[in-house]
Design brief:
InterPro entries: PIN-like_dom_sf, PIN_dom, Type_II_TA_system_RNase, VapC_family. Keywords: Hydrolase, Magnesium, Metal-binding, Nuclease, Toxin, Toxin-antitoxin system. This is Ribonuclease VapC. Its cofactor is Mg(2+). It is an enzyme of class 3 (hydrolase). It contains five helices and four strands; from the N terminus they run βαβααααββ. With 132 residues, the chain is an alpha/beta fold. It has a single domain, classed as 5'-nuclease (Rossmann fold). It has a four-stranded parallel beta sheet with strand order 2-1-3-4. Helix 1 links the parallel strand 1 and strand 2. Helix 1 crosses helix 3 and helix 4 crosses helix 5. The longest helix is centred in the middle third of the chain and has 16 residues. It is globular, with a radius of gyration of 15 Å.
Length: 132
């Protein structure tokens, strides 16, 4: 059973904040964590910005995410990732590689993924998703 007092914030939560997309704050767990994968995705967004305004906005988003101590990919996360990928294949489901690393991080720590991304399929053992 996932610990609903802590949630792993997916990259989409930070993008929602950046773009002004509403977030259902009542559904967000009391404590939050961030994967190093999210930090990487946000850093890539800064590098890919096409103008100074977008770069500045994206840098602010990256800085907000970096206020959290990033959860690293370790042996436990790697094992959860391999099992997750096997389960996805067995059920004929797809998930992006970065999303699967974020999901594996959440699974390894017993946390739900807090997201606005519909790329996290339902019905995967060990994966709990909170859509906000």
């Amino acid at each position: 059973m996932a610990d609903l007092t802590v949630g792993l914030l997916d990259t989409s939560i930070f993008i929602a904040r950046e773009t002004g997309r509403p977030i259902d704050l009542h559904s967000v767990p009391l404590e939050a964590a961030v994967s190093t994968v999210t930090i990487g995705e946000l850093r890539w967004g800064v590098l890919m910005a096409t103008d100074d305004e977008a770069r500045s906005r994206r840098l602010d988003t990256l800085n907000a995410a970096q206020r959290f101590e990033p959860i690293v990919i370790d042996e436990r996360v790697a094992a959860a990732w391999a099992l997750l990928r096997q389960r996805l294949k067995g059920q004929g489901l797809k998930m992006g590689v970065n999303d699967s690393w974020i999901a594996a991080t959440a699974i390894a720590h017993g946390w739900p993924v807090v997201t606005q991304d519909l790329g996290f399929p339902e019905g995967i053992a060990g994966l709990q998703v909170v859509v906000v």
